[in-house]
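Q: What changes when pyridoxal-5'-phosphate is included in the input?
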Amino acid sequence: MSRYPELQQELEHRRKKGLQRMLRTTEYVAECQGTWIVSNGQKLLNLSSNNYLGLSHDPRLLNTWQLTANTFGAGGTSSRLVVGNSSCYHHTEQIISRWKEREATLLFANGYMANLGCISALLDRHSAIYSDRLNHASIVDGTILSRASHYRYRHNDYEHLQYLLQKHKEKHRRNLIVTDTVFSMDGDKANIEELIKIKHDYGAFLMVDEAHASGVYGETGAGLCHQLGVHQEVDILMGTCSKALGLYGAYVCADQVLIDYLVHTCRPLIYSTSLPPALVTAIGHSVAIVQQEEWRRQELHRKSNQFRTQLQQAGLLVPSGDSPIVPLLLGDNQTAIEYSNRLEQAGILAVAIRPPTVPEDSARIRFSLMATHSDEDIAWAAHQTIQTAMELGVIT
Ligand SMILES: Cc1ncc(COP(=O)(O)O)c(C=O)c1O
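A: The predicted holo structure follows.
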């Protein structure tokens, strides 16, 4: 009997609803650069990482990391505002500012902290945030922390957004519209051009989260806003180093004055130890690779489209799109778990995503592709996915 029967009961309740979570132990297959993974002693094709460009195991990045650690040490040692602001930071932030074509950049510990810190620094209880319903949890949590009024508009529904702005904006000192540019669980996109128009019409700030677009869209991989040529018009451009860059960390790009303001007010930046310098330097190196190696983006898109099309042609409920995120919509939690388990038995790691990560009754398998998957692996994975759908009666 547990010492905490109430907690035990709640866990049991979650299990019955198909909402149990577990920490899976994984190891990488050395020569496969992250495309294959070992879990429970089984070799599995990895269709669940955000390592879109296959850079997490790139020998150039590992080398940079090691060399920098030899000189600068293994840890950040203090907050950046004390003695943790190594010269590596300045260098990498300049690289990112040039890449994003923005005045200034601030690195953060991770994407969660960047959103949490930025939103809670810019807004207070006299402010309001207008946030897409499917935005990432870190945006929601930053909003709660800020104590700003929280208005959630229906997903990509800008009439609803304008209705909310019209109704509430005068009550607040500062109004911020925030959206993911590519939504993490659906792979669909916000209409950034439309949002820029609305931002101007209502005198609001616009913040975009390019976590799943950075490295993936635009000629140099700078993101969706760059692909559209509107990156200068967005107030706050946020992105992560944990996905296409293959590393860890995040950044916010904006006008210098906004970055200065964050340095003075952003609590996760001020009251937390800086990132290890070796990682910061590796981030700069990864940006350079992402800019130069366009073939990675081309391969990623080609393979994602191939996989998506194969599933759609078999009659599976897979929304159209062009991102490397390919969701297979199943609805109920138990079907999603069973589907994922069967794929695992067949040799594919593709995890089931359930509420609250996605809305109720929209459990799914979230496939995510990598530039470095082989064509054979992708074709085989599509075949296994379709077979599984037939076994489970998802398609006939
Ligand atoms: C849209 C979005 N924003 C932010 C984050 C958080 O980034 P990180 O994993 O670097 O904390 C994620 C990661 O899952 C994400 O999908």
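Observations recorded in class: The domain at 59-292 is CATH 3.40.640.10 (Aspartate Aminotransferase; domain 2).
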